């Protein structure tokens, strides 16, 4: 890939926009994850896949965990935007929260990157998610915040609920349902869990 000036992107002096460069590197990271089937990628693999020097990759992502977190945040941001926009009854807090928890569970199968992220060995991903809890919460809150405010105004949620804490509970519930013990259970079991242990705590 070349810049308008004919230079290879990522090379010294190449005029590639930083945001564009980050996306190209994350795209390469996703391809590597899909090819390997897990998150045990090496930075050199990603650099080779992106056709850049390792120094270019390290300029944007100092460690593999930094790269993985940025990749996960981008996927969450894009997915949350789709899911919020596609809510069937956005004014109904119970129905919407249930969808927001269960959508990620059903989105794993059929997506090679998601399958790799949630493969049997999730140790690397779990540590990355733990480190990125605040960032993940901020992304989710940005998409769900307006609805959350409306639900509280309508009296559907407990008035003392905090948006960020609620997003953490939603995210934690999804992560639990994606665990090896729960991921392959029937959708009806997932729904019962959400209704019994999450919605009861949030809804008035």
From TrEMBL:
PANTHER family: HTH-TYPE TRANSCRIPTIONAL DUAL REGULATOR CECR (PTHR30055:SF146), HTH-TYPE TRANSCRIPTIONAL REGULATOR RUTR (PTHR30055). The keyword Transcription regulation does not apply. Keywords: DNA-binding. PROSITE patterns: HTH_TETR_2. InterPro entries: Homeodomain-like_sf (IPR009057), HTH-type_TetR-like_transc_reg (IPR050109), HTH_TetR (IPR001647). The keyword Secreted does not apply. GO terms for molecular function: DNA-binding transcription factor activity; transcription cis-regulatory region binding. This is Uncharacterized protein. Transmembrane segments: none annotated. It comes from Mycolicibacterium duvalii. Signal peptide: none annotated. It comes from the Bacteria.
